[in-house]
What does this fold into?
Amino acid sequence: MKAIRLAAAAALVALSCGAASAQSHLRIGLAEDPDVLDPTLARTYVGRIVFASICDKLFDIDEKLSVIPQLGLSHETSEDGKTVTIKLRPGVKFHDGEAFNAEAAKFSLERHLTMQGSFRRPELAVVDTVEVVDPLTIKLNLKSPFSPLIAQLTDRAGMMVSPKAAKEAGDKFGLKPVCAGPYKFVERVQQDRIVVEKFADYWNKANVHIDRITYLPIVDATVRLANLKSGGLDLIERLAATDMAAVKSDNRLKLFATPDLSYMGITINVANGEKAKNPLGQHAKVRQALELSLDREAINQVVFNGEFVPGNQWVSPQNTYYQQSLPMPKRDVTKAKALIKEAGVATPITIDFMVPQGAELKATSEVIQAMAAEAGFDMRIRVTEFATSLKMGEQGEYQAYLINWSGRTDPDGNAFIFHKTKAPQNNSGISNPEVDKALDEARLTSDPAKRKAIYERAAKIVNTEIPILYLYHRKVLIAQTTRVDGFVPVPDGLVRVVGLRIK
Amino acid sequence: MLTFLAKRIVQLIPTLFFVSVLIFSLQQLLPGDPALIMAGEDRDPAVIEQIRKQYRLDQPIPVQYVFWVKGVLSGDLGESMRNKQKVLDLVLQKLPVTMQLAGMAIVIALLIGVSAGIVSAVYKDTPLDYAANVLALWGLSTPNFWLGIMLIFLFSVQLGWLPPSGYVPLTEDWRQSLATTIMPAFVLGNAIAAVLMRHTRSAMLQALNSDYVRTARAKGLLERTVILKHAMRNALTPVITLGALEFGTLLSGAVLTEQIFTIPGFGKLIIDAVFNRDYAVVQGVVLITATTYITLNLIADLLYVLVNPRLRA
It folds into this structure.
């Protein structure tokens, strides 16, 4: 028996030993398979993780969410806020050897603006024209002042593509992207792997230490972690919150948990079609009662072992735009009951509570259900497949909808499209002229202190009207083996590969 | 034989037409809007409108169907909305993976199932028979996802002998390729082995009690010859059909197993496409697997005829 076991072990080990290579190789486990790798046509979050190695942007953000130079060295907004001048980095080359200059930057931005099927057009909608000032300077002429613009250029809208390659490939550019990032695209097997290799002419090549990176999409979080533990992967993104303890207790692994830009909230149907006609949708007091019936800290403790960040606004309490004047209310069931009574509504208040599929959402919704019940709410959980829930959310086929927003660097991205009247993601149907005015005004102002004061006006109304009941902010959970060195977590959750080493 | 073949092939045409209509119309019943999913998290109305136009989602369903069938008849299965890749290319990329996995799984299933079936029939009502039955019951009742995760924990995390997931093509490195596929193939084969074992056992028992076996024994043939040459050959006919059908099912993709082991085969392709409402991919893959399934069924029938000449009439 022992001999058989040994023979089996030997055979399996023989199978698993591939040819060793001298090149340093980093294997990153992704939670999903990215969509098309064209900065203009891409739309998934996971795709941005891959772009972080192949496509440099005009600007980037650092761990404190400050804008830092990348292909753009500096930016200057005119007095009237209607032109933005950007100085470009000299000596930059694309992966095909073409030079990066003002012409190339103009081409890339115009491609984002005009290409058929571009997902960047709404992000850059305010840009009227792009001018070449000199070979290393461009000027963006805006239709109106728009302070979140620079933040947009720190993401896909700021990614520069090789004009020559983009013209040749047309809408197939994403099958073999040619950009100016630290790594160049090698191959992709759908749902299996994306391979990139070090770009010898990168502008910051002194800080690129790994020869090759393979991105492997592994959807199941348990299997992703198993791969990390067994050495099949070096780094994984979006670790399941429930696996944090397992990673912490393993001395071969290292965990990074940084508050991210997202929020989890309950969108409440206040004026989106027939289903808004219910006590929760009609009375702000009932919504306030629902808020008071919940203990955000307890949700965090029960579902996430206290690892996430409870919050009551569209940005997390650590964010500079968090309004200290609007603190998180403590749970108060008596007061909640009193508010329901004031509203003149009979209990139990039955609520159709739509919850997209997923262990985390399901657990959260069950805790909410139990807590709210004590104040007289009967939250009827309706677990719905994600794609279906999006459609129903848009059509107002719900009364309460538990949904996460991945978050944007600029607070505008977390507020405008949700609370402005008739904005694309205003699923609650809220329409408040004061909120609209504040949200518009914040777009015209670049001074952070002034913007914060403007947002305060909107946040005050939102926290009273409660079209979205904010609950908590997730953390970027990244786990790696101790072989990897130099990883710096940034709130957007992307894996920046410059500076990384493999021991 | 040729008339039989011709008849069966003619029957294929209406079947495939029916399948194509079914695939297309059933998919339209899926809730959710592909344009909304495609538009990403931002879901800008202008972008959504444009996607609808680009992929003809704004046209009536019969019109969409005609466009699709026209494409299919000229060999164009369309393009993935998500990745911009041709559906045919995607299918060709996944086909060898799924073939390899299905092939290995069926070999494992046959090895375990048929031999366990014969042993338990020959040694009926002995501890060996009971053991084989318990094994079969275990194989049938163990869920794939559970067995998969357990194998990963044992062989990859604890023992470190096998890679926990991923896939390496046979042509690239055959040892790595076998290492990455052995666990999923076992998981898939395990369940099928149980079914095959039960069938082999009952067919063998019937054969062993038949007159010709008694005659063979009376002639003084070796027991081994009686079992392997006389009883087994006859008993295996239904098992062949079953094996071919199971192989067909495997080719249509082992959704859960592929998901757990991250094997980039049909199962994974189709499940991702369904969740992303990537209609062209779903339609293309289902059409191809349906065709494969029907063809395999046909081949099984032909094999049947070859093994049992009485059916040729």
The two ends of chain A are 39 Å apart (CA to CA). Residues 247 and 345 of chain A are 48 Å apart (CA to CA).
